[in-house]
Amino acid sequence: MNTIVEPGLVADLPIPSYTPAGNETQIFELAWQNRLPLLLKGPTGCGKTRFVAHMAARLGLPLLTVACHDDLTAADLVGRHLISGEGTIWSDGPLTRAVRLGGICYLDEVVEARKDTTVVLHPLADDRRVLPIDRTGELLAAPPSFMLVVSYNPGYQNLLKGMKPSTRQRFVSLSFDFPAPEREIEIVQGETGLDGARCAQLVKLAGALRALKDRDLEEAASTRLLIYAATLMQSGLAAEDACRVAIVESLSDEPATIAALMDVVRAVFG
Ligand SMILES: Nc1ncnc2c1ncn2[C@@H]1O[C@H](COP(=O)(O)OP(=O)(O)OP(=O)(O)O)[C@@H](O)[C@H]1O
Fold first, then answer.
1. Which residue has the higher pLDDT, 162 or 263?
2. CA 123 / ligand 1 centre spacing (Å)
3. Which pLDDT score, from 0 to 100, does residue 161 have?
4. Measured from the CB, is residue 43 less than 6 Å from ligand 1?
5. Considering 151, 175, 199, which residue would you say is the last residue of a domain?
6. Is residue 138 domain-shared with residue 258, that is, in the same domain?
7. Is the ipTM of this complex over 0.90?
8. What values do phi and psi take at 164, rounded to 5?
């Protein structure tokens, strides 16, 4: 899903809360001030999107988010001619709109996009900071406030889907990981209002499940899933049921694995 925070609305929206792990907010601000593009790497659901939303709101910038996929074409990013009653009209894609607005364009899971699509980012992501729009002949210069941010999950990466070095080496890179336990408890509690004791149990469960990654599970339990479970618990669902539907069933389809994971849930909440 692509989302757009329009400039007129920026001032009216509350700043999405973000609990930092280190000096990533300072790095983001310095990259923005110095017109450097940023690459965020990290597992799914660990806070990359929230971080970008937080920083965009803090800096008062419009944010245009694109969820990349393997059918994404350069025209989806840059724009295309559309046929209307009055003939053909040019319609900006989200990347072009972000450049015109001087906002942030956030490309989530950029490795999913085809390599010929990501190549359109090159002149924008280096010191030229321009977007050539081949179909209209326009060469759009990015205003100083424009910033390109991309993210990817190295866990999903395979040999075919790696990022081209020529793309990758145009970005300042920040690594994200799941929050340390104290911080994750704070995040889960802040997002859901669930009591500290049960938030701590959920974080303990996440630690136990994350230890199974690579051995029994493809993906680790994300902070997002803990928040789902905590939300259901805060609404009155029993911990075991909440963990089953929000965490365990999202991690595996294998009955034997699900049963083993539920044993871990019972050991933590029993
Ligand atoms: N540091 C944090 N501060 C506040 N909330 C956080 C933080 N980290 C994670 N969250 C919570 O976890 C949820 C998932 O995080 P987010 O959507 O940012 O993950 P992501 O890394 O962008 O995942 P994906 O790669 O799947 O897009 C957020 O909606 C938010 O509720």
1. 263
2. 30
3. 64
4. no
5. 175
6. no
7. yes
8. -60, 135
